[in-house]
Amino acid sequence: MQQYETHGNLEELTAFVAVAEAQSFVKAAGALGRDASVLSRRVSQLEARLGVRLLARTTRRVALTEVGSAYYQRVRSLLDELEMAGQEASDFAGSPRGLLRIALPMAFGRLWVAPLLPPFLARHPQIRVDARFGDRFVDLVAEGFDVAVRLGVLRDSSLTARKVASYRTVLVASPAYLARRGRPGTPADLADHACLGFTGHASWPDWLLAKDGQSHPVQPKGPLIADNSELLLLAALQGTGIVLAPEWLAGAALREGRLVEVLPGWAGQAEGGVYIVLPPGRLVPTKTRVFVDEIAGALPGAWAKDAQGASASPVPAP
Predict the structure, then answer these.
(1) Does the pTM exceed 0.70?
(2) CATH 1.20.200.10: does it fit domain 6-94?
């Protein structure tokens, strides 16, 4: 297929339609704010490209040829569609609307993002949300996601990321477990305890603990490992063992005394972050921008609120 320069072709088409409708190069030039000689040159270039005469020129007027009349109808429709598409794009950019596809971590998404979605949709009735929950790293571009929430330490990538909150990971157990098995005094003592392992930790099969600049790797051994952090927290609440859990998951149970921090001061070596990740590119649709702003405003410190400011515990009492 023969390739033309898009910008040049559009100028030629606009000039042709304006002259055809005004039946005069001078009048068309006045309507477009261009010089008549420029329009004449554009139309001549278009006719040369097509190899046909579109306009019959006389000293008094300009008229469409037979082929020019048929061509005008098609081009007029094309320019109308372009104008409509541009208007729709402007409207789309100016107000939040359309389908918003979101990728969310399983437990975090259910506990902290899912409750925000109904009021978000109520405020933005022209937005539809497709929320997908899972702990794998989705390919935003290949899988067509508008935004993702990711946890931990963000890997280097070409994606655009915004850190909206931080959290620690802490060792916790139920008072009943500690009464039965005793409290570990050092990270090394964990070898004698039932440790519950989350296989989704970046450091798995180790726990990398840190305190005051010291670091201590621990390889947890115990009756249960899982790729679901909510299951492990529930097991800890029921006295099964000790778990290394993020504050956003264990915070409510700690405040309520249903869990107790083990080895206070020792925590996961790397501070966790909550990131909102977007596909590469500088133009962010309005639907995405309003979602990012609302999530960023709601999440920071949500799991660190005191008992009066916090919502109900995300994990039911055993």
Answers:
(1) no
(2) no
Ranges of beta strands (E only) in 48-187 are 55-57, 62-64, 98-104, 127-133, 147-152, 160-167, 169-173
Mean pLDDT score, 212-233: 91
Query: pLDDT above 70 covers what percent of the chain?
Result: 87
Q: What is the CATH number of domain 169-268?
A: 3.40.190.10
Domain ranges of the chain: 6-94, 98-165+276-303, 169-268
Q: Closest Cα to residue 287, out of 49, 99, 24, 22? A: 99
User: Which residue in the block uniquely carries the two structure tokens 């579109």?
Assistant: 54
Are 207 and 269 in contact by the 8 Å Cβ rule? The answer is no
Cβ atoms 176, 239 nearer than 8 A: yes
6-94 and 98-165+276-303 have identical folds: no
Residue 51 burial by Cβ neighbours in a 10 Å radius (0-12, 13-18, 19+): exposed
Rounded distance between C-alpha atoms, residue 52 and residue 71, angstroms? 11
* 108 has pLDDT over 80: yes
- Is there a contact between 177 and 236 (Cβ–Cβ < 8 Å)? yes
- Cα–Cα distance measured from residue 51 to residue 179, given in angstroms and rounded to the nearest whole number: 93
Fold classified for 98-165+276-303: D-Maltodextrin-Binding Protein; domain 2 (3.40.190)
Residue 155: name the closest of 90, 101, 202 by CA: 202
